[in-house]
Recover the amino acids of this structure.
């Protein structure tokens, strides 16, 4: 059985895809998906209520929608919904199978552990993007909608569409970066939600930290794609804005490093459910 | 470097401070090998090490020349039925096998063919489309066995595969193991009941307190067990004839006819009994399907062999 390199690569691709599909199915279409859906439905429900109960005096101010969405995005969508949805989805990739005591079936398949990690990561990213991109788009719609025709034309203008696209780029990059981090956390920690909360604290504090420490957070790079600047209050220290290509490189490189660390951890992974 | 042996060289495994197995040196040949030891003796640890689910703290393992930390090669030639009674959420019998096979890179048609063949071999065809969560203990044990051998591996590692099966189920599964071993495979079967594997094994490995205490053929040892009654299940076309003949033997304590062409015999002398059965079968022209031990209550034998107050456990 001497498989040449091209055949081997084909086997890896098919294994990565098989695992990714199974992870998407598990994340989006199983009983435990309920919590993630609930989380993602929160901004929609809130924006819907806001649309219904918005006083007429505010409805006429269509241009306000741009800053309104920016605030909703930064303080609620990105730092809460996107963050926790990724935590829930990616921490489960390995930890979920350990709790379910079914990890051994995965580890008994003829798959390299690093290929397994890539498959799970891809499955996580696909699930997160499939949930969060529509959720962000719908929230965007719901913020502009109550402003009537003026809101709609603002939203569908070239500037409106490109700013939505910029927000979606942030969401997708956040899935890559947070996803890699939480997958790794799920391999190392028995209860990864504690480190996740500590990390959220860090991410929230960074605007108030000096530039050097800022550069150690994902948010710092993610916000450099934001189409509209948002004030974080008087105490936020001004940081030099990061060029988009620097931010992109920093996010993709750190995701890659985290995925690499996860594959090293997976190589050392042992099945000892009794000790859990 | 291909080889036909499973080799452990000075292998130790510690769970933190707790000893799993200690300085194990082993060479397992093709055929059926019984791995026998009481609860906590290190059987599962040894099997986990063989399949890369655990890494050795010390020493080296080679499975037909492949190191267990190369799953992409190892699991083309090995199948492992673990002691865990858990399954992926919501899986059906056939779906469970299909997913496992899809990771091997087979074509769709081949996945289907292999999955159904394995399901049939363990007698679950009718229940294949049902959820595993609704299976009985014996059915779950069978679907695990199907999972272990559906990709037709050279080496089968089976951790207490007879757990939860009734005597008939046991006899069937034992037939399956011996058949797989006869095809030239390595079949390693663990049990905390010596007699369960003793009679079907080509070789036996006895483990106790994380160390290998005996290894090889144990036909010699079996003679020492004569004073402990054991149960034997016989399936043949004339159970009544065999029953009346067998009952005349002085070491037979009980002979009970089951429905479905089965006969359950309790004897105090296994060796003499098997010799006599052969004679009876030949004389009465009986067509025998199986003669196999069907016993769970021989912990006493085990104590006797190991020479310590171990054993106990399931009844
Ligand atoms: N995850 C673990 N953490 C700590 N100790 C463990 C762990 N798994 C096994 N052990 C210890 O290692 C020793 C061997 O256990 P092992 O499960 O291999 O025994 P076994 O022969 O399979 O027993 P059983 O018949 O009960 O299945 C025991 O002393 C056990 O307590
Ligand atoms: Mg065990």
């Amino acid at each position: 059985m001497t498989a040449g390199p091209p055949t081997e690569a084909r086997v890896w691709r098919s294994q990565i895809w098989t695992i990714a599909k199974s992870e998407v199915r598990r994340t989006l279409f199983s009983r435990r998906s309920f919590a993630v859906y609930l989380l993602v439905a929160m901004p929609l429900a809130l924006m819907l209520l806001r649309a219904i109960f918005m006083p007429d005096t505010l409805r006429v101010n269509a241009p306000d929608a741009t800053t309104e969405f920016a605030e909703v995005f930064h303080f609620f969508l990105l730092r809460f919904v996107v963050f926790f949805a990724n935590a829930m989805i990616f921490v489960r990739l390995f930890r979920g199978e350990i709790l379910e005591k079914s990890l051994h079936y995965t580890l008994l398949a003829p798959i390299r552990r690093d290929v397994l990690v890539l498959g799970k990561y891809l499955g996580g990213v696909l699930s997160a993007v499939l949930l969060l991109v529509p959720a962000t788009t719908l929230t965007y719609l719901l913020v502009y909608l109550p402003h009537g025709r003026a809101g709609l034309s603002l939203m569908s203008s070239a500037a409106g569409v490109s700013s939505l696209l910029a927000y979606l780029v942030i969401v997708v990059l956040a899935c890559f970066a947070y996803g890699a981090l939480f997958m790794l956390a799920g391999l190392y920690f028995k209860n990864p939600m504690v480190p996740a909360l500590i990390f959220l604290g860090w991410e929230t504090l960074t605007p108030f930290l000096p530039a050097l420490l800022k550069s150690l957070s994902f948010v710092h790079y993610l916000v450099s794609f934001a189409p509209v600047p948002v004030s974080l209050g008087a105490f936020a220290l001004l940081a030099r804005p990061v060029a988009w290509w620097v931010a992109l490189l920093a996010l993709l490189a750190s995701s890659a490093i985290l995925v690499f660390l996860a594959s090293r951890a997976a190589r050392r992974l042992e099945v000892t459910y009794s000790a859990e | 470097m291909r080889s036909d042996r499973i080799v452990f060289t000075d292998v130790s495994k510690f769970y933190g401070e707790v000893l799993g197995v200690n300085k194990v040196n082993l060479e397992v040949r093709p055929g059926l090998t019984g791995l026998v030891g009481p609860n906590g003796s290190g059987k599962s640890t040894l099997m986990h090490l063989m399949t890369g689910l655990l890494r050795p703290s010390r020493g080296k393992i080679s499975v037909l020349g492949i190191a267990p930390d190369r799953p992409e090669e190892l699991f083309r030639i090995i199948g492992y039925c673990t002691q865990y009674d858990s399954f992926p959420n919501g899986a059906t019998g056939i779906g469970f096998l299909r997913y496992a096979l899809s990771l091997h890179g087979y074509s769709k048609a081949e996945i289907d063919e292999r999955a159904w063949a394995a399901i049939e071999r363990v007698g679950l065809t009718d229940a294949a489309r049902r959820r595993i969560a609704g299976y009985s203990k014996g059915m779950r044990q069978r679907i695990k066995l199907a999972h272990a051998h559906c990709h037709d591996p050279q080496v089968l590692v089976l951790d207490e595969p007879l757990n939860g099966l009734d005597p008939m189920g046991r006899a069937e599964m034992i037939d399956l193991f011996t058949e797989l071993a006869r095809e030239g495979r390595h079949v390693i079967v663990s049990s905390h009941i010596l007699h369960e594997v003793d009679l079907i094994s080509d070789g036996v490995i006895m483990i106790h307190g994380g160390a290998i205490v005996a290894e090889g053929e144990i036909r010699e040892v079996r003679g020492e067990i004569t004073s402990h009654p054991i149960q034997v299940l016989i399936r043949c076309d004339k159970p009544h004839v065999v029953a009346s003949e067998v009952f005349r033997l002085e070491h037979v304590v009980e002979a009970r006819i089951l429905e479905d062409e089965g006969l359950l015999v309790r004897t105090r002398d296994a060796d003499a009994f098997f010799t006599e059965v052969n004679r009876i079968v030949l004389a009465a022209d009986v067509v025998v399907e199986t003669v196999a031990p069907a016993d769970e209550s021989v912990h006493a034998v085990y104590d006797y062999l190991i020479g310590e107050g171990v054993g106990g456990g399931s009844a």
About this structure: The longest helix of chain A spans residues 64-99. Chain A is about 75% helix and 0% strand. The interface with chain B takes residues 1, 11, 14-15, 18-19, 22, 26, 30-32, 100-102, 104-105, 107-113, 115, 267-268, 270-273, 275 of chain A (CB under 8 Å). The radius of gyration of chain A is 21 Å.
